Structure formats: structure tokens, C-alpha cells
Amino acid sequence: MPSTEWPPDLDLLLPTVEVESGERVVWRRGGAATFPDAVRAATAVPTVFPPVGIGGRHYMDGTAYSFSNADLAAGLDHVLVLMPLRSLLSDTALDRELAALDPHRTTLISPDTDTVEAFKTGLFDPRIWITFFHTGQRQAAAQAEEIAAAWNP
């Protein structure tokens, strides 16, 4: 990581799950976790990376609580929801999570059909991550105008 400090101009929320209780814990600037520890905990995908110890407790990826954690963005002017694993979540569950947000101010980004097909070859196989990178680059270029319009109405 280029810095060990929380971004000063960004109200960044990093959702995690406390392993023992199953409770969602959201880390932010000024809290008990250092920025690197909070990032590691928020990306500690079960069965892929071990839980991260913070203050004598252990935390894992917040998707164990909610795939989107979109409820944390309720009330904000603009929301960009990144759902890289949307194909693993039922539309009903996602609709329920997004219902708390203003649909006119929410942009959902999730893998397109080509990327979902690539996922089927081995989501956690580092030998094919470059494939995901390239499909993501192509999709980002295709959706750039839509995203820009959402942020600059």
C-alpha cells in the first residue's frame, strides 16, 4: 500500500465481519483499526485469506454479511455500487439491498456476460486473473459514459 494513513479527504467505509459473533463491523478513519489492517480485514475472503486480528478479535471480508453492503450508502447524493460477484447473488437479494437507495442516484456496476463466463473457468485461479483484468478494462471503456453521466448530471 502506498500509505498507512486513512485517506484524509474520503469518508471511506470498510465493512467486515467479526468471526466469533458474525456481527458486521465497519471500519473508518478515526476508528480502532489502522488503514492497512482494515483493508486486509475487508478483503480477507473466507477460505482464501485468513481472518485479520484487530484489537484481539478477528475479522473477515464484509461480503460474508452482505454482498453489496449498499445500506451503508443510504442518504448519499450519488452511489456507485460495485458488484464484482453479482452472478453469485440472487436478483431478489440484490434488489432488497438496493431498495434503501435512491434509484435515480445509484449506478450499479457488475460483470458483463463475457466476464461472468470467464469466472466459470476458475475465479480464484491466479493464472487467469489477467483474463478478468482485460474483460474489466473492456467493460470499463464501454460503460465510462454511463458512469460519468451518473456522477456529473
From TrEMBL:
<feature type="domain" description="PNPLA">
    <location>
        <begin position="34"/>
        <end position="73"/>
    </location>
</feature>
<dbReference type="Pfam" id="PF01734">
    <property type="entry name" value="Patatin"/>
</dbReference>
<dbReference type="InterPro" id="IPR002641">
    <property type="entry name" value="PNPLA_dom"/>
</dbReference>
<protein>
    <recommendedName>
        <fullName>PNPLA domain-containing protein</fullName>
    </recommendedName>
</protein>
<keyword id="KW-0443">Lipid metabolism</keyword>
<dbReference type="InterPro" id="IPR016035">
    <property type="entry name" value="Acyl_Trfase/lysoPLipase"/>
</dbReference>
<dbReference type="GO" id="GO:0006629">
    <property type="term" value="P:lipid metabolic process"/>
</dbReference>
